[in-house]
Amino acid sequence: MQASAPRKTAAALTIALLAGLCAAPAFAHPGEHHAVASFSLGFLHPILGWDHLLAMLAVGLWASQQPRRVAWVMPLAFPAMMALGALVGLQGGALPWMETGIAASVAVLGLLIAFAVRMPLAGGAAIIALFGLVHGVAHGIEAPAGGTLLGYGAGFIAATVMLHLAGLLAGMWATRPAASGRVLRAAGAVVASAGFSLLAFI
């Protein structure tokens, strides 16, 4: 008996995420600054680290499960607060629980998706804003010492928005009437598992 398409999709997503976690460093900010700041380096920073990548995709996936007016606020709240956090990081500010907070954001967002938790506008925006702030501080701390910091910042904000939109569109596809919401919930469970794995290695 052949597996259904949704099950195949969920299985493929699980394998891809777990394989990536095994093959790449868990964190996008290992403590070494890039040589020269640029838009391209800023753009790659969230994409090359699984903690940032999963969290930013998860924001879009969770947003797709919300009422429409909430769904479009979440992908805006995260980069806005991330920019503020980056300014804090650039000024030398740091959070003692920053790495834990980033890993926890992946785990929590995954659980919220897995259980299809719906939030009022204020509550959902507050959760997303907090996670955005933590990720932003990490981006600011890891900003290169030389080059164009404005371009670097524009790069990681552009990548963040792109990942949010990718997650949102994927979530909307997975929750359309012709599809099963179980695929999206399964993806949330995978993201949550990855988050707890990141927490275990801190």
UniProtKB/TrEMBL annotation:
Transmembrane segments: 44-63, 70-88, 94-114, 121-138, 150-171, 183-201
Protein name according to UniProt: HupE/UreJ family protein
Keyword entries, A-Z: Membrane, Signal, Transmembrane, Transmembrane helix
Species in which this protein is naturally found: Noviherbaspirillum album
Entries under Pfam families matching the protein: HupE_UreJ
Cleaved signal peptide residues: 1-28
